[in-house]
Specification:
The protein contains ten helices and seven strands. It is α+β, with helices and mostly antiparallel strands. It starts with a helix and ends with a strand.
């Protein structure tokens, strides 16, 4: 008799697993174009930076030869290097308005031009972008031979530019790695065995995955209780829960609004709350949103809200609870997961 009961249960579990995998593939399909665009931006930036890096390194090597003819002392070379290493990297003056920035470049270029630096107007933008202004170049002008300043400042600009481009390459590859990690986390097989899960890591990966939809008008507010412990859970399934809830919230707001993601301890449970300020769910539809394939989205926008799958994951697979409160301007989905193993 027990074998007869076990077989339908196993069959149901297999069907649920197949349904979840199908839903994950459908979700990735919906997000594929946005993810491709998100990954293309850092990839293009990294490729462009590496091309410019080759030119900057060639210029630095040529200028090193020019600088050698002035036979600078060890202390003078060290002073040049210190000036570079104390710079703030590209973007140090990005908060300047264009008019102030233009005036600062003109002033720095004029100061260098007065000291015989013939290409001062080409050097000024890069140096100023790294927060190397007249106050930092003045000590160099006093320490180095006057006739060496054109070569010294040109060499300094090439070195600063090389370091800034290396930073761009690092940022681009880091961004690509983060996006790849978010996709991997979303598709986590989970091995169908619970493991210690950091809820905040999953939420951050989800926000990263959906950044292409968030960055055009959704302000995200994170209210995390970082003291919360890891919980025993199926990470791939939970990531699917967070992705559906946040994606639905973005769509409910029409891509513009305020999204709050909160975590807290609620008795013996860990609470995750996703709140949006969209128009809300009509009262007559609140009970229906848990039905399979039910949706309030326009035709062609997916196969449903996915809330039936969310409830199965939270309630059936994690012995937790999921609830919703909704009124115009405030819709809150609350997921509670047991803190105990």
């Amino acid at each position: 008799m027990s074998g007869d009961v076990k077989e339908p249960q196993e069959r149901l579990r297999c069907l649920e697993g197949a349904l979840l995998r199908q839903e994950k593939l459908a979700a990735l399909g919906r997000h594929a174009a946005g993810l491709a665009h998100e990954m293309n931006n850092p990839a293009s930036a990294g490729r462009r930076a590496t091309e410019q890096l080759t030119q900057a390194m060639d210029a630095q090597e040529d200028l090193s030869v020019e600088l050698d003819r002035w036979r600078l002392s060890q202390e003078q070379r060290q002073q040049l290097l210190r000036t570079c290493r104390q710079s703030q990297g590209r973007g140090a003056t990005q908060d300047m308005d264009p008019l102030t920035r233009g005036d600062a470049e003109d002033a720095l270029a004029s100061w260098m031009d007065a000291r015989g630096v013939v290409n001062a107007w080409d050097l000024a933008p890069t140096l100023l972008d790294a927060a190397i202004g007249q106050e930092k170049l003045e000590p160099l002008a006093q320490a180095l031979p006057a006739e060496s300043l054109p070569d010294a400042f040109a060499w300094l600009e090439a070195l600063v530019r090389t370091r800034a481009l290396l930073t761009e390459v690092r940022q681009s590859t880091t961004r690509l790695a983060e996006l790849a990690g978010a996709v991997k986390s979303f598709t986590h097989a989970g091995k169908e065995h619970p493991e210690p899960v950091d809820i905040h890591e999953g939420l951050e990966n989800t926000l990263l995955l959906l950044n292409y939809k968030l960055k055009h008008g959704v302000e995200v507010r994170r209210e995390y209780d970082r003291s919360l412990p890891r919980i025993q859970a199926l990470p791939g399934m939970l990531n699917h829960v967070w992705t559906n809830l946040i994606d639905n919230a973005i769509d409910a707001m029409g891509g513009k609004g305020h999204l709050a993601v909160r975590t807290a301890r609620d008795g013996g449970s860990l609470l995750v709350e996703v709140v949006d300020d969209g128009p809300g769910v009509p009262p007559e539809l609140l009970e229906r949103i848990w039905e399979p394939f039910f949706t309030t989205k326009p035709m062609g926008h997916g196969t449903g809200l996915g809330l039936d799958i969310i409830r199965r994951i939270v309630v059936d697979r994690h012995h937790g609870d999921v609830r919703v409160e909704s009124r115009p301007g405030h819709t809150s989905f609350q997921v509670r997961l047991p803190l105990g193993a």
